[in-house]
Design goal:
about 270 residues; mainly alpha; 12 helices; globular
């Protein structure tokens, strides 16, 4: 028998990936509450922090000169958080439908599955963030898009971090089932105080600053403040964030593969909904 057409496991099918993206897209657009949820909370956060900054800037010389830092931080934080939660929700859709076992027995490869989840995280993020960024212009005159190429650097680093966390959480869900579901909703909030979203790293205790500088989003938020306050784009911070992201993404991917192998050995894929 010829092995010319044997499956080596390294082939990648764009058609299978596109089919999964189409599946998640149909699920999304078929439910208006799903669409509303993508816009609702980012809008509430942007308005709350925006009005707070407006009040503080009227009573503080520092914040008057740092206009937009709170709103910018909120919008960038939503890229980080919504990128991860968008990834995880698409994965959880399969668990809620008890469909993971079927997917793992199909020709769909893990890398294709993960690629579809990453694409859908961007789709969900765009649906939520584009209208919210326009509302920020209308209410507070803060134009996120005016950051230009800096915004591209911020986005790439934040979405890579969110995908890395999403991939690792997906592995935990495969191995531990719905008992680990809360991790999908809460794990990113561990990064909220450590990545210094709303304040400089210097505010942290000296020993905790070392931990903070090991997290890629820290460099993005420090870079955002440097751009808005000092009007300087810190290329060094973006390159450092990218380096940490490469390591984080590789570690998360390795962890996912190992957790998937463990789930197959333990037979937990078919009980993923338990």
């Amino acid at each position: 028998m010829s092995n010319a057409n044997a499956d080596t496991g390294f082939e990648f099918s764009f058609n299978r990936t596109a089919a999964m993206v189409r599946r998640y897209w149909y699920l999304l657009i078929s439910s208006w509450p799903r669409l509303l949820d993508l816009v609702y909370w980012p809008t509430v956060q942007m308005l709350m922090w925006g009005f707070l900054q407006l009040y503080v800037s009227q009573n503080s010389g520092y914040f008057a000169g740092a206009a937009g830092t709170f709103i910018g931080a909120v919008l960038l934080w939503d890229i980080l958080f919504r990128g991860q939660i968008g990834f995880s929700i698409s994965f959880l859709e399969e668990m809620w439908a008890r469909n993971l076992g079927n997917l793992m027995m199909s020709p769909l490869r893990p890398v294709e599955f993960i690629s579809a989840l990453m694409i859908m995280s961007i789709v969900r993020l765009a649906i939520g963030m584009i209208p919210v960024s326009l509302l920020a212009i209308a209410f507070f005159g803060f134009n996120l898009w005016s950051l230009g190429l800096a915004l591209v650097a911020f986005f790439i680093n934040l979405i890579l971090t969110s995908w890395s966390i999403g991939i690792f959480v997906a592995g935990l869900l495969l191995r531990n089932g719905m008992g680990a579901e809360s991790m999908a909703w809460t794990i990113m909030f561990l990064f909220l105080p450590l990545t210094c979203v709303y304040y400089p790293v210097a505010v942290l205790p000296h020993w905790l600053q070392y931990v903070s500088w090991c997290l890629p989003p820290t460099y993005v938020f420090e870079g955002m403040r440097a751009l808005l306050i000092e009007h300087v784009f810190r290329t060094d911070l973006m390159l450092a964030a990218l380096g940490f992201n490469v390591v984080l993404f590789a570690a998360a991917s390795f962890g996912f593969v190992k957790l998937l192998e463990s789930a197959r050995v333990q037979g937990s894929l078919l009980q993923a909904g338990e």
